[in-house]
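Case study 2.
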Amino acid sequence: MKKIQKIKFDMYKWCQDLFPICRSITGDGIQKTLKYFEKLNPSLKRIKFKSRSKVFDWTVPLEWNIKDAYIKHSSGKKFADFKKSNLHVVNFSIPINKYIKKKDLIKKIHTLKNFKNAIPYVTSYYKRDWGFCLSYNEKKKLPDGNYKIFIDSEIKKGNLHLSHAILNGKKKNEIFFSSYVCHPSMANNELSGPVVLNALIKYIKTNYKKTKYTYRFVLLPETIGSIAYLSRYKSILKKKVMMGFNLSCLGDDKAYSIIKGPNKDDLSYKALYSILRNKKKLKVYDFRHRGSDERQYCSPGIDLPVVGFCRSKYGEYKEYHTDRDNLKLISQKSLEQSLEVLKNLVDVCEVSLFPKTQTFCEPNLSKRNLYPTTSTLFSMTTDLKLRKDILAFSNGKRSIFDLSEILDNDVLKICSEIKILKKNKLII
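Prediction:
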C-alpha cells in the first residue's frame, strides 16, 4: 500500500460557512447545505423525494422556507428576532401576522427552565403550528401589553433533498457512513458530523486510487431522510453493507462515544471499539439509548449493522439543542481527532479486514529475517510473540478487529504487523 498522505482539511472553516444557514428537514436551507458539500465533493449526487409521497409508514413533508420572524411589543421593542438567531422561531412554523395579548403569547413561547440563558431548539414538522423560543430569563422580562407576532414563512409542494456518494472498490461489500443536515445554527449537533464525513470522502479519494471495499456516504435530513433513503435502497443496502456508522456530534473535546446496534457483536461495533479502545475517555451506550438515524438503519426488517459514533453523545451535553451549541463549542483539533478515528478504520480495512495465513503449520520466519536465527530463552519478545500470534489466529474468518480483542492488543499495531507479513507473502 502506498504511503498515506497527511492532508489537513479545514473542517472548522466549513462549519463557519454553514453555521448561519437556517436548515430544516426540507427547503432552501438544506438545499444550500447539500450544494456546499456537493461542491466540496462532486462524488455526492442529489436524490429527491416528492412532497406527500409515501415512504414506508411516513409521508414526505412539504417544503418549508422562512425569511423573517419576530415578536414586537407595542413600544416598538423586538423580541425573538429571527435575524439575530434562527432558533428564535419554532422550526416549520406556519406564516402569521397578527396582534396578541401577552397572556396568550406566553403560551406560544418555549424556554428551558434548567438552562435559563439558552434559547432552545423546537420543531413542529408534522403538525401545522407556530411558536417562538426565548431564553427563560428573557421571557421573564417581557413587558406587559400587546404584541405583534410576525412569521414570514412559506409551506409549499416541493421535494425532500438528500445526497449520496458511492466510491466503488474492487469488492461490492460496502462500508457505510451517514450523517444529517437538517438542523439550523447548531455546530456540534448539526455540522460536525457532515464535515467529518466530507473530509473522509476527500481522504479516501486522495489516498486510494482503487479501494478494496466500496464506500457509501449519505447526507440527509434526520429520520424522514433515512426512512426515505431506505425506502428506495433497502434491498441494495441489506445485500451489500457489511459495516455502517452514523456520525453525529463529533466536534467537541469530550469523551468518545459508541451507540451499539441491537446486535451487540456486529462487525461495526468491533471495528469502532478496536480503534477507540485505548482512548482515555470512552463511553459505550446500549441500543436502548439510540436517538439518531441508527433507529432506522437497525430497525426490524432493515437490520443493517450500523452503530453511532459521537464525541459527547447527543442529549448528553448541556448545550445540546440550544443556541449554546455554537462555534465556540467545537474546534478544528477535535474535528481532526474524530476524523483520525475514521481514517484509521478505513486504513485498517484496506490493509486486511479478514487476514488469512498462507502456509500450512508455522512459517519459517527466520529465513525471512522475521525471527532470530539463534533461539534462546529470551528470544521471544513481545513484538515477536504478537507476530506469531497473528499468524496463529488469522484463518480468514476472524476479522482484524477480532484479533485485536483476542490478542488484547492495539488494532493499529496489529495492522502494522500484518503489513510486514503481507510484504513477505505470509498473509493475504
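The chain has three domains: 11-61+159-351, 63-155, 354-423.
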